[in-house]
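Re: [ENG-882] Designed sequences occasionally contain unexpected residues at chain ends

Forwarding the minimal case from QA. Structure tokens:
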């Protein structure tokens, strides 16, 4: 990583209908890391991408090292695509963080390529579904349209519940995004038994 290259941030956090966007030079993705064989970041055997940078900074977050927008490392999206496609056992890809919607343009392009190869997309976001659908930024809307299951809302330590599947606090929901977008209201995702 060349630390002399500036990182551009578009969209002020307090601007209505706007989500802070991290623009890494060369169309790269800024990540904290990846896991090639996760079974805890969504249903099935998954490749998890932990994005770098998060405006929420939830107290008790299990990935506080991902909060700094200047941290992590830069990676070419094609490198991640190749790594995912090299593993024939994968059922899907999970975007986590950090906050994936802060790098919406790059991730929406990757998600479309994963879908073309038969993989599903789960995404963890500190934003709620309603905040994401109310966002006016085209990249955010495109990424949301590529997500199959959204785990939405900030982690709330006072609502921590270790009995929940694939989420940390009771306020967070598993949302079937295609069904929700189709009917215009939240449709909860039903886990396979």
């Amino acid at each position: 990583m060349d630390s002399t290259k500036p990182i551009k941030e578009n969209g002020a956090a307090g601007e209505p209908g706007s989500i802070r966007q991290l623009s890494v030079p060369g169309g790269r993705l800024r990540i904290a890391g990846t896991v090639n064989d996760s079974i805890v970041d969504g249903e099935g055997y998954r490749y998890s991408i932990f994005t770098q940078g998060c405006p929420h900074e939830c107290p008790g977050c299990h990935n506080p090292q991902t909060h700094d927008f200047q941290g992590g490392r830069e990676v070419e999206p094609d490198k991640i695509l190749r790594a995912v496609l090299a593993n024939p056992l994968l059922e899907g890809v999970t975007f986590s963080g950090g906050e994936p919607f802060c790098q919406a343009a790059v991730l929406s392009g990757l998600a479309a390529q994963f879908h073309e190869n038969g993989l599903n997309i789960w995404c963890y976001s500190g934003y709620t579904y309603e905040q994401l659908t109310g966002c006016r930024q085209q990249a955010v809307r495109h990424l949301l349209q590529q997500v199959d299951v959204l785990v939405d809302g900030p982690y709330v330590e006072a609502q921590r519940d270790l009995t929940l599947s694939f989420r940390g606090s009771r306020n967070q929901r598993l949302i079937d995004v295609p069904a929700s977008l189709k009917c215009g209201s939240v449709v909860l995702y039903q886990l396979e038994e």
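QA comment: On inspection the terminal residues look reasonable. The longest helix spans residues 104-116. Proposing we downgrade this to a documentation issue.
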